[in-house]
Amino acid sequence: MDQLNSGGVRVGVIVHKAYARVGLLGNPSDVYYGRTISFSLANFWASVKLEPSDDLVIKPHPVHDLVQFQSLHHLMNRLQNEGYYGGVRLVMAICKVFFKYCKDNKIDLHKGNFTLSYDTNIPRQTGLSGSSAIVCAALDCLLDFYKVRHLVKVEIRPNLILNAEKELGIVAGLQDRVAQVYGGLVHMDFHKEHMDELGHGIYTPMDIDLLPPLYLIYAENPSDSGKVHSTVRQRWLDGDEFIISSMKEVAQMAAEGQAAILEKNYSKLAELMNHNFDLRRRMFGDDVLGALNIEMVEIARRFGAASKFTGSGGAVIAFCPNGPSQVELLEDACRKAGFSIEPVKIGRSRLTDIDAKTISR
Description:
Elements: E1 3-4, E2 10-11, E3 14-25, E4 35-53, E5 57-58, H1 72-82, H2 88-104, E6 113-120, H3 130-145, H4 157-167, H5 175-182, E7 185-189, H6 192-198, E8 202-206, E9 215-219, H7 232-237, H8 241-262, H9 266-284, H10 286-289, H11 291-302, E10 306-309, E11 315-319, H12 324-337, E12 339-343, H13 353-358
Parallel strand pairs: 5-6
Antiparallel strand pairs: 1-2, 3-4, 4-6, 4-7, 7-8, 9-11, 9-12, 10-11
């Protein structure tokens, strides 16, 4: 039931969900002025709930923000498996970035307060963009609570999410956040001219029904997901010809992939997926990618499936062009190797009619 908050504005409980993300083609060229195709993965999601309240409260999650333990051994296991950070800092960061954006752009916010809480079932350290999903859902709650959805352009929202993560020292590109803001299947062009002129890329939603059946492979405990620091970014900045030309080639795969998907040319799609990973491997090296991640890709390939990382490692997207019999062989091999595998569910567009009206024409 709606109620009046401390600012005298009638609001009710607001809940938003943002899905995990799969980079289908072109990653990681999004941070090198490239192109990508990504989609929202409806198998996993983060949800954020906003409730009007007298004070502004960010509620810790009972599992992911745990501060009470049964023993020192329990604490050690928790830190080894999930690290030091939960989602509270993510929610706080987007509140700060949202407030600053509204202030800088003279968007008035009412004085009401709220309580924010979150939940997520996105597996950690799997390259499925679990952190940005929490931030995306929280941003949607803030847009609706302050009734400013029509004043914050859809194309700008991924930048706000990324800026919140940058506040916390998280290094990433726009690709994940675009897929999670838009939902569905999206082609993204991050050409330097667009980024310099507009401050964002050109984002083109595509019909999710054009994609063939896909499968997600991931490790339940991806402890060996590549621990060696990559020098690729610095080499790109230093003008390394191999890195620069390889990133351009990776970006071109997204352009070719867009055409292949529109034509339902799935043999071409499989070829591009494999080549995308192969180029990434040559640029980054096996020590950076991690033996466990490489094994997930190679298991799929041993059975003739196309496969590549969903993100930076921890999970793999696979396509079995030969159909159900090939899928059964892959499922059996993954389970024997200790990997989880499940059919991909692609989330549909998250954009409302109000959102659509804010998109640049």
